[in-house]
Amino acid sequence: MSSHSPEQWLQCSLGELTERFVTQADPVPSGLLEALDADPRRGAQSLARRIRARQERNRSEGQRLRHLLRFEMELWEQGHTHVAGVDEAGMAPLAGPVVAAAAVLPKSYRLKGLDDSKKVLDAEKREALAVAIKRDAVAWAVGHAEVEEIDRINIYHAGLLAMRRAVEGLGLKPDFVLVDARTIPECPAPQRGIIKGDSLSMSIAAASILAKTTRDRLMGELDSRYPGYGLAEHKGYPTPRHIQALRDKGVLPIHRRSFGPVREALGLLAPAVPAPAQAELFAIEPAPVRRRP
């Protein structure tokens, strides 16, 4: 039917035309919009407006995606074939690991709707994007830093550790690494930290989606293991429900005892000194003695 004239297209029902050119977003035949504009039926004129609005959204999305590739395009033009984006999820929660992801995308990759995971609010949409990224990526990997590591080296360095593990898990050595807002110690390739990189680089945005969806699934599993804390709902973040559960039910092994609300729930009187009831569950290594020279 692609060779039909505009007049022949208008012999189709408006419902069929809507399904084809709005819902399915098929290419619009030449002259069809003008024919719909000239059609005396209000529904036909409304359909023309809807198709134009859809075309404008597609143009805007195309421009946005091209803009997201500007860092990658610069590196590809310099001969860096495998550009990895790296981001993390779970720095602020009171429970669970921090998770990082790395993604190497094909050259000139486009994925409609791909953006910083914090801007993709619908969980099903994030999961669909994650499936597409894993399917299309040249390579991808995730890395974790566990609660014990967070408490030992602090959350900032644990996030960097998870990032390094993600890069090392790619199965290939990237030619260049783009990182959200920081640089990775002992990174196996040249790197660049980009402030707000998850909203400025497509590779970092892809990594942010993978990190977020991976951690969310993990917190759902932990919710089954530790019911009553709402972990699947708040993902370990310090929501009022989570704080109240800490007070009512106590601290779990998956809680980060270096974080203030957890320390308060432990009944710590001073930094790193647990209440007697928690001392056995959360053993603390003695601090080294500092001697004056």
Describe this structure in words.
It is a single chain. By secondary structure, this protein is α/β, with parallel strands linked by helices. Helices cover 48% and strands 10% of the residues. It has helices spanning 6-9, 14-23, 32-38, 42-68, 70-77, 123-136, 147-153, 155-168, 202-225, 231-234, 240-249, 260-266, 276-279, and strands spanning 83-89, 98-104, 139-145, 176-180, 191-194. It has a 5-stranded mixed sheet with strand order 3-2-1-4-5.
Q: Estimate the global geometry from the Cα principal axes.
A: flat
Structural class: alpha/beta
The biggest beta sheet reads: 5 strands, mixed
Number of helices: 13
Strands side by side in the biggest sheet: 3-2-1-4-5
Any idea what the radius of gyration is? 25 Å
Helix content: 40-55%
What is the overall pLDDT average? Answer: 89
Give the DSSP E fraction (strand runs of 2 or more residues). 5-15%
What is the chain-wise order of helices and strands?
A: HHHHHEEHEHHEEHHHHH
Which features would summarize this protein structure in a list?
single chain; 293 residues; alpha/beta; five-stranded mixed sheet; 5 strands; disordered C terminus
Question: What's this entry about, in short?
Answer:
With 293 residues, the protein is an alpha/beta fold. It has helices at residues 6-9, 14-23, 32-38, 42-68, 70-77, 123-136, 147-153, 155-168, 202-225, 231-234, 240-249, 260-266, 276-279; strands at 83-89, 98-104, 139-145, 176-180, 191-194.
